[in-house]
Amino acid sequence: MKSQRCEVLATELDEAGLGVGLSAGRRIHVADLLPGERAEVAIDHDSPHKPEGWGRVVRRLGPASPNRVQPKCPGWGRCGGCVWQHLSYPAQLEAKHARVAKALVHLGVTVAPVHPSPALFGYRNKGKYVVGLAGKHLVLGAYAPRTHAVVDTLGCKVVAPIIDELASWVRGAAEAADLVPYDEKARTGELRYVILREAKGDVMVALVVATGTPRVKLEQVANALSRHPALRGLVAITNDRRDGAIVPSGSSAQVLLGHGHITEELAGVSIAVGAAEFLQVNRAQATAMYARVAELAREAGGTRALDLFAGLGGIGLHLARGGATVTSVELDREAVAQLRRAAERANLPLRAIAGDAGDLSREDLGDPDIVVVNPPRKGLSDGARALLAQLAPPTIVYVSCGPESLGRDLAALAPAYRADVIEPFDLMPGTPQVETVVRLRRHTPAG
Hints:
The protein has 447 residues and is an alpha/beta fold. The chain has helices at 89-103, 161-176, 215-225, 283-300, 314-321, 333-345, 362-365, 382-391, 403-413, and strands at residues 4-9, 12-13, 19-23, 26-30, 38-46, 52-61, 126-134, 137-143, 150-152, 191-199, 202-209, 231-238, 253-258, 262-266, 269-273, 304-308, 325-330, 350-354, 370-373, 395-400, 417-425, 435-442.
């Protein structure tokens, strides 16, 4: 059946990087169409629930946007990553600022300009690859949007160059060892995913495999990779789950070569990082953001700090370096164990607790002067918001990767707190993602 066609003038970008414009009262999302560009569009899908559709450019009408640039990655437009790579960086920053300002407009506080990333390419310290087939050859890549077709992403310009180099070695070694790519539909095969982490030029590799993958094949891969001078560790992690988790919580790693971790540095403190622990992928920009959080905390006064959703301690360690006595709370027990060891080695006043922020109380945590929260994209749970209300600290610093959930949470806190600083940070150039640091001061409502 022939696709319906219409003319669309894009006026904004959505989170998937698609240009959005109106046609006959419908919002139409179009791939590779920037704001200000007009095109004849073929509609491939209409929403059954609201007046929206999705389509593709058939014919461009008029000039290209002055903000259009040539994407650097060979897989751009097919892999689903870095969906704003065709948008100039100044325009990306403007769009991110607009997203934050829109989500927080109810606060009536000026949003500072976005802190730009020091690097636009080669900044990612972690690469995650889905394993697939192209003809008879093994492919490391990503699922094309809305499909299970694997697009080859070797040659990616966003990961650290040494990650891309070693990923090519892994592909060749796995193919030579006859490792069979896993088939998600048939639930057959051996190699599912490959994860690489980089720190100071060193790399660790994790092979995520299905149960029954022959040890001899994994050892053959290890022998081949042992010749690369940057490799510091190779592990195999078994995963038979069907829920999309790449490394399920609690997974154990079988060390095939070297170490089962790589050594990162947070606030000048060495900390061991495995394949599963969360760590910001843009090291330089994350360091700048954590330092700013610590600065905002110092300006607010007080020395007793509580760090909720602490992860590996990027924020907590910066707070402790700045003179605060810190209690860090994190659900991931392995991350807590690594943070405890790192703080002890550095002789820093940081106590790490394994637990859910929503399950704790004042009796567990005392009376902090400052609480820093850095929740996942969905924002604070009801339990975490209740904990903040119970603690009622003079200052809260909220670090968010989801402007919309941030807006919701700040609205809930507004009766008791007002924002005096809102600063976005760009940790993922080429994408719509933006981190936002907000400082909140407790106040007494008028009347």
